[in-house]
Amino acid sequence: MIFVIMKEIMFSTMLQATRKLERGTHLVTLNDVAKKANVSKMTVSRVINHPEQVTDELKKLVYEAMQDLNYRPNAAAKALANNRTQIIKLLILEEMDTTEPYYMFLLTGIANELDKSAYSLQLLTHKNIQIGDSDGYIVCGMRKQDEELVKSLKKPTVIYGKNDIGYDYVDSNNESSMERATEYAIRDGYEKIVYIGIDVDEPFALSREKGYAKVMEKYGREKCLYRLENRSRYSARFIRDNWADFPKNTLFLCASDRLGMGVIREIKEKGYDIPNDYGVIGHDGVFLDQIAYPHLTTLKQSTAEMGAACARMVLKKVKENGKPQGSELFETELKLGGTTRNQVKQSSLS
Amino acid sequence: MIFVIMKEIMFSTMLQATRKLERGTHLVTLNDVAKKANVSKMTVSRVINHPEQVTDELKKLVYEAMQDLNYRPNAAAKALANNRTQIIKLLILEEMDTTEPYYMFLLTGIANELDKSAYSLQLLTHKNIQIGDSDGYIVCGMRKQDEELVKSLKKPTVIYGKNDIGYDYVDSNNESSMERATEYAIRDGYEKIVYIGIDVDEPFALSREKGYAKVMEKYGREKCLYRLENRSRYSARFIRDNWADFPKNTLFLCASDRLGMGVIREIKEKGYDIPNDYGVIGHDGVFLDQIAYPHLTTLKQSTAEMGAACARMVLKKVKENGKPQGSELFETELKLGGTTRNQVKQSSLS
DNA sequence: TTAATTTCTGTTACCGATAACACCTGAAAT
DNA sequence: ATTTCAGGTGTTATCGGTAACAGAAATTAA
């Protein structure tokens, strides 16, 4: 602030109050850099956007000038000239109050990455879908019924979550995640491994089931797979209603921490010990696992990193005029809590 | 969208491919509206920004033209001309993984409101404070140690949360919130009301305590007030360690749902009944109250509305060149769960 | 040595909006 | 009837960048 004020005083003292100064205070422009480096502003612009077209010598001069003046490009001007908006819209199609709070981490990851490219974010929820101008979209929580909407988007789009409609996406490697968990459960000495999945016909749910099924077959264990709505009271009720089917030394492998919490609650209610009598493993590892008591053993997603990856992917796609980017899968981390016995050497895991 | 395609076809058919069309596709500009309405673009601009300077007759023409063409102002151009950025930065100074997920709701509220004014959001966290260009700031989770940082901001700033440093803010009415809860607890027949607060020296914590204290005095009850770090394991341990002090028919009034969860857990652990033997009331009502079993009776904050209010306040402040806006307090809603007896007629509450 | 390229840099026009100014009307004042 | 003035509208320059083109210098080819 002091600097700004000083600058203003200096100028008005010099009676040089140009229109530019009256209007605004953006300090350093391309022009300033250009003057300092004794080149045209086009050259400076090239150094930034097409450095290969500029001599090393000039590039050096320009870089130094930019450093000295602490040049920061004006996103609005850039946007206007490129016919871009410098905005990426994030569509959240899920009800947020029924969902776990990992969105916040996802958002943080996205936002930090966008910032680096002077992009900003607009958040749209199912309640507020004003598909205005933007350079691209990131879509989360997409279900089958949202496909039409997503297909109607006219700009580069990346989906957070595997999908069947050929869109570029970023996701956790749900299959390998559950493989690892199942393997761990078996090695941790649990006899029966019951899978409690989420009752939606979506790729993420199917992948998780597949991971479980694969390892159970590999070990010749009997599969035991259920599907519930993703709410702790349903998993609690499920345990209560089917208690006879679950002998001691059973582990419940849950497709979400939320389901895991219901399971824990009900086992404690029955007076059994976790992890000795029964084990529980959840999935997501964002928040609920820490709220649970004992802390849930869970598969922790790298939510913020995945957000960053989404952002990088859309931006790249924007730059390359919508060119397909494929997909990116992130491994989860098995985070041990107090709901498993944890007698396995971590190093012995694949 | 059909409209878009048609328009493109029309133009190319007419072999009128101007440079504008080659470069981009922003459809309708001020100029287009101006032509359609037979006025200059300056008039259109005035209709938008200074309608009082334009005849009703022309205004009508212009509005119609805008409607017909579905005109959407170009935020980048506007930003550039006004020497603005059309960006508001949100600073989250708290660790998000120790905090409840209400930020997501806050964010939604902010984002929706900003959208309406073609503003977008940039999210900054304590890990990533790149205070670049923006027109204003919204700050959340500010603690004493952050005051310097906040004071160094050079643009209109609104704080989410009451503060002592004279900044405009939006917050829940924490005092009246706890007054209501205390009153309710008493009327619901609990003999002893224990307050479990959060151990930070911040206005929100103090206001909540004050609300409790006030009503306890009013009813001539003995105050019993503790402060803990905001984690469920601490409140659980606290209950365990001081169990002797809590006869049956005690209600624990907690400054957060998180603390409330620890209390519930420990009471259940001891084998007592909630809500008959003991009562629990939490605060926040964003997410954890629904995870708790039984559901927590809590004071639900209007988080999204407060977010919207923050956004409106910064935008107003930006428009009015930083003019102070005062503060805005939102009442919480007493949301009854299974942790209180709920024998009180709601209507009898103040 | 001169013509033909290639490589690099500068000039111009433009993106879509706005403030300042110029101008033009008609009503009020003299 | 002429001057003043106010309100209402159009013109111009500008915000800070970038693409397209033009032009100069350095290479290469002949």
Give the topology, please.
2 copies of one chain form a homodimer.
Chain A: H1 2-13, H2 19-23, H3 30-37, H4 41-49, H5 56-69, H6 75-82, E1 87-92, H7 103-116, E2 120-125, E3 136-140, H8 147-151, E4 157-160, E5 169-172, H9 174-187, E6 192-198, H10 203-218, E7 225-228, H11 232-241, E8 250-254, H12 257-269, E9 278-284, H13 288-291, E10 297-300, H14 303-319, E11 327-330, E12 333-335
Chain A binds a DNA duplex (30 and 30 nucleotides) through residues 19-20, 22-24, 26, 29-31, 39-43, 45-46, 49, 53-55, 58, 73-74, 76-83.
Question: Overview of this structure, please?
Answer:
The first copy, chain A, is α/β, with parallel strands linked by helices and 350 residues long. Chain A is elongated, with a radius of gyration of 27 Å. In chain A, α3 packs across α4 (41-49) and α7 (103-116) crosses α14 (303-319). A six-stranded parallel β-sheet of chain A has the order 2-1-3-4-5-11, covered by helices on one side. Chain A has a six-stranded mixed β-sheet with strand order 7-6-8-9-10-12, with helices on both faces. Residues 1-25 of chain A have low confidence and may be disordered. Chain A contains 14 helices and twelve strands. The longest helix of chain A has 17 residues, at 303-319. The first copy, chain A, folds into three domains: 2-73, lambda repressor-like DNA-binding domains (434 Repressor (Amino-terminal Domain)), CATH 1.10.260; 87-172 and 303-330, Response regulator (Rossmann fold, 3-Layer(aba) Sandwich); 174-301 and 333-348, Rossmann fold. The interface between A and B is large, with 57 and 55 residues. The structure holds a DNA duplex (30 and 30 nucleotides).
